[in-house]
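does this look right to u?? zinc ion version
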Amino acid sequence: MNILDGVKNISKIVKQYNDLELNQQIIDLTQQALDLINENVRLTQENEELKRANDLESKIERHDKPFVTISDDDKSIKYCATCWGKDKQLIQLHQRYYNGTECLECNICKLRFSKKDIQ
Ligand SMILES: [Zn+2]
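got this back:
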């Protein structure tokens, strides 16, 4: 039986006594139970997000280069080291050509470097 079912059961019993003050207390208690349930849902989601972020952090591989990779991922997939360092945002770098030079670029911070500079 969860907390809300418990309050509902008490509410049924209290209604038999036809006591307005007691009824109001049960209504308040029901609202407090709902608030607690909502808070619990919010905290559970927040905890899940933190676990995911922590798990990801442990998989990030830093290099002496402007990108990061993920340990259990394809190493050819490169992510922006600037965005990761600043906001823990994992932004995949995209291949572009500028004046015939093959470059990797971040769509968020606009970091750009030539692929041959990182080899
Ligand atoms: Zn970036």
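The longest helix spans residues 20-59. idk if thats expected tbh
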